[in-house]
Specification:
4 domains; 6-stranded mixed beta sheet; about 625 residues; 19 helices; Rossmann fold; globular; alpha/beta
Length: about 625
C-alpha cells in the first residue's frame, strides 16, 4: 500500500535548488535510510513530507487518513507534565477510547430499557474491538517498555519531564514518537544522545515495526540493522537502492564502475562516428555520413555517476612522544555518586583507544582526568615524555560563536601561520570560500565539527582526544576522519557510540560501566562477541538451574501420587550417555568461546563468521541435549 508518493518534487531556498525532480513512493513496511552529504536537503525533505514545509513545485500525495509524524528536536511539553504523562499523551486517542469504554459500560449498567441496553452493548463491542485492534489494553506496558528501553528508570516516571537534561528531553520526544506509532515515521538522527545499549534496543524496536519509516542517520551500523531500502539524495536528485546501507554502498560502487565502462565505450563510438562523418560528409559516402549523423543526434548520452567525496582532512606530521603516552594507577572519581575506581593501565604511542559505556558512566570525565583537565579523587595519572594534547569536546566549546571561522581555526600560539596557510587547512576540511569570514555561531553543526577538527590539526598535537567527533559529520566526512586517524602518526583516544567508526579506528577499548573502568584488547566487534559469550554463560547457568528444578519436580509428584502420564519427545537413552554428550558439547563450546573472545579471530572475516555459526549451532544442539536429559531423568528415575 502506497502511503506517500512524490512526483517532480522540488524545493528552493533563496532561489537556489535544494532538491528538484524527486520521484518516489513509500509503502507500508518500507524502512528507508535517507543518506547524502550534509546540506543536500535531507531534513528539509522530511519537513516537506510532514507538512511543516511546502514544496515549490511538484506533487506530494499522502494517502487519506495516513498519519505522518516527524521526530521533533524541541520539547513540546509543559513544565508540570511528568515523564509518564508525556509518554501517555502520544496515545491520547487510545486513552480516550478506554474512557469511552468505561462510560459505555456504565450506560449498559444503568440502562432502563432493553433498547437502551442493546444500543450501549453494541457501542461497547465496537469500542472494545477498536481497542483490541490497537493493542490498547496494554498501554501502561507499552509506555514502560519504550521508556525503559530508552534508558529511563522507574524512578523517572513521575518526575517532571521539564527537569531532565537536554539529551534526556530528546529521548522523551523520541519515546513519544515511538508510542504514537504513526503510519509513517520520519526520524532525523534518532540515535543522537543515545548510548550503545540504548541504540541497540532502538534498532531492535524499529526493525520489529510494520509501519513505514524514513530514517536520516550518519550511523552506518544503525542503518545496516534497521533499513531495508536506501535513498541517496545528492546534487538535487534522488536515487533508490534496495537493501541496507552496506548493500547500497556496494551497489553504488558497482553501478558507478559499470556506468564508467559504458560511458567510455560510448565515447569511443561517438569519436569514431564523428570521425567518419567528417571524412565522408562531402564524398561518395555522404548518405552514410548523413545517416550516422542522424543516429548520433538521437543517441541517448550516458552520464557518469558523480562520486560523493568527503573532505581530504588529514593531520600534520607530529613530534615523537615517549613510548608510554598515558600511565594510570588505581584512578577513582566520584561526583554525586561513584563513577569508577581502580582504573589501571597504560596507553602506548601510536595506539587508538576507544572509550565506550552508558551515558553518565563517566567516559568524558575519565578522558579529562587522563589529560589533566580534571583531578582524580585518588590514584595517579601520568602523561609520557613530550606528549602534547589536542582536545575535541563534543560541545564544540573551543569555537567562540562570535568569532569568524578563520580566526577560530587560526593557531593562537604559532606566529608562523599566515592567512593562506589557514585557508588551505580549512579547505582540507571542506570549509571554503567566504565561509572563512562567517561567524562560528552561524555555521551548521557539521561545519562546526569540521572547524573544530581543523583547529585540532593546527595545534600539531601528538595525542588527540576526541569526544564524540562523528556526531555532526555526514557519512563521507566520517570516512575521511577514519582514514585520517589511521594515517596519523600520534596517539588517539576517542569517546564514541558510533560502532562502525570504532571498528574502523580503535584497536583497544576502555569500557566505563557499573562503577569501573577497564581496558579491553580488541575493537567493538570483538567486545560485542565477548559480551555475547558472557550472556550465553549466564543464560546457560539459568537454564541448568531451571532444568534441575524441573527434573526434581517428577520425584515430588511421584511421592504424592500425582505424576501425570506424558508422551516421550525423544527416543530412550541412558542419562549417563546423555551427560557424556553434554560434557563433550560444553567442552567444544568453551573452545569456541575462547576463539570468539580472541581479537585475532576477527582479522579473518570468513573465519570469524564460521566460528559464530558453529557457536550458534552448538547452542541449539545443547538446548536439545538438555531437554533430552530432562526427559530421561523424568522417565528413568
Amino acid at each position: 500500500m502506497i502511503l506517500l508518493s512524490a512526483k517532480d518534487l522540488g524545493r528552493h531556498i533563496a532561489g537556489d535548488p535544494i532538491f528538484q525532480g524527486l520521484d518516489f513512493d513509500l509503502r507500508t513496511g518500507q524502512r528507508v535510510g535517507l543518506v547524502g552529504p550534509n546540506g543536500v536537503g535531507k531534513t528539509t525533505l522530511l519537513k516537506v513530507l510532514n507538512g511543516q514545509d511546502k514544496p515549490d513545485y511538484g506533487n506530494l500525495y499522502v494517502r487519506p487518513g495516513a498519519q505522518v509524524s516527524l521526530l521533533r528536536q524541541q520539547p513540546d511539553f509543559g513544565p508540570v507534565l511528568t515523564l509518564r504523562d508525556v509518554a501517555r499523551s502520544a496515545m491520547a486517542g487510545l486513552v480516550r477510547l478506554q474512557e469511552q469504554l468505561h462510560e459505555t459500560a456504565e450506560d449498559m449498567a444503568s440502562a432502563k430499557t432493553e433498547e437502551e441496553r442493546t444500543a450501549a452493548s453494541t457501542r461497547y463491542e465496537q469500542i472494545h474491538e477498536q481497542l483490541e485492534h490497537h493493542d490498547a489494553f496494554s498501554i501502561e506496558h507499552r509506555v514502560e517498555e519504550v521508556l525503559f528501553g530508552l534508558g529511563f528508570t522507574p524512578a523517572d516516571l513521575d518526575r517532571a519531564a521539564s527537569t531532565f537534561s537536554g539529551g534526556q528531553q530528546s529521548r522523551v520526544m523520541l519515546a513519544k514518537l515511538l508510542l504514537e506509532n504513526p503510519d509513517v515515521m520520519l526520524l532525523d538522527e534518532p540515535s543522537n544522545h543515545l548510548d550503545l545499549e540504548t541504540v541497540e534496543w532502538l534498532e531492535s524496536f524499529l526493525a520489529r515495526q510494520a509501519i513505514a519509516m524514513i530514517v536520516v542517520s550518519h550511523d552506518r551500523a544503525f542503518l545496516d540493522r534497521v533499513v531495508n531500502t536506501t535513498w541517496e539524495l545528492h546534487r538535487s536528485r534522488m536515487t533508490s537502492y534496495p537493501g541496507n546501507f552496506s548493500k547500497y554502498w556496494t551497489m553504488r560502487q558497482e553501478r558507478m564502475d559499470q556506468l564508467e565502462k559504458q560511458y567510455e565505450r560510448q565515447q569511443e563510438y561517438i569519436q569514431e562516428t564523428e570521425s567518419f562523418i567528417r571524412r565522408n560528409m562531402a564524398g561518395q559516402k555522404t548518405k552514410q555520413a548523413q545517416d550516422r549523423q542522424k543516429k548520433l543526434a538521437r543517441l541517448d548520452r550516458i552520464e557518469k555517476m558523480s562520486e560523493i567525496v568527503g573532505p581530504i582532512m588529514g593531520f600534520e606530521e607530529v613530534a615523537r612522544s615517549g613510548d608510554i603516552v598515558v600511565d594510570a594507577s588505581n584512578v577513582a572519581k566520584s561526583f554525586d555518586q561513584p563513577l569508577f575506581k581502580g582504573f589501571t593501565g597504560s596507553i602506548q604511542r601510536g595506539q587508538c583507544v576507544g572509550v565506550i559505556g552508558p551515558n553518565g558512566a563517566g567516559k568524558s570525565t575519565l578522558v579529562k582526568i587522563m589529560i589533566g583537565k580534571l583531578a582524580p579523587d585518588s590514584g595517579n595519572i601520568r602523561l609520557g615524555h613530550n606528549v602534547r594534547v589536542g582536545y575535541y569536546d563534543q560541545g564544540l566549546n573551543s569555537l567562540p560563536p562570535e568569532t569568524t571561522l578563520m580566526r577560530a581555526v587560526w593557531p593562537e600560539d604559532d606566529m608562523s601561520w599566515v592567512e593562506n596557510d589557514v585557508r588551505d587547512l580549512m579547505a582540507r576540511f571542506g570549509l571554503t570560500g567566504d565561509m572563512a569570514f562567517q561567524k562560528v555561531g552561524a555555521l551548521s553543526g557539521g561545519e562546526k565539527g569540521k572547524a573544530a577538527l581543523a583547529r585540532l590539526c593546527a595545534t600539531s598535537a601528538n595525542m588527540l582526544v576526541l569526544d564524540e567527533p562523528t556526531n555532526h559529520l555526514d557519512i563521507w566526512s566520517c570516512e575521511s576522519l577514519e582514514r585520517s586517524i589511521k594515517e596519523y602518526e600520534g596517539t588517539v583516544i576517542v569517546v564514541s557510540h558510533d560502532r562502525y567508526f570504532l571498528n574502523q579506528v580503535a584497536d583497544r577499548l576502555i569500557v566505563v560501566a557499573n562503577g569501573t573502568a577497564r581496558f579491553f584488547e580488541g575493537n567493538y566487534e570483538a567486545w560485542e562477541s565477548a559480551q555475547a559469550v558472557i550472556k550465553s554463560k549466564e543464560q546457560e547457568q539459568a537454564n541448568r538451574a531451571a532444568s534441575v528444578a524441573k527434573a526434581n519436580e517428577p520425584v515430588k509428584q511421584l511421592a504424592t501420587g500425582q505424576l501425570p502420564k506424558k508422551k516421550r519427545k525423544f527416543p530412550f537413552r541412558k542419562t549417563a550417555d546423555l551427560e557424556a554428550d553434554v560434557a563433550r558439547a560444553e567442552t567444544e563450546k568453551a573452545a569456541l568461546e575462547a576463539q570468539l573472545a580472541d581479537p585475532t579471530t576477527y582479522r579473518d572475516e570468513a573465519k570469524a563468521r564460521l566460528v559464530r555459526e558453529k557457536f550458534a549451532a552448538l547452542e541449539t544442539k545443547l538446548t536439545m541435549l538438555y531437554e533430552h536429559w530432562e526427559e530421561a531423568m523424568e522417565y528413568n528415575s
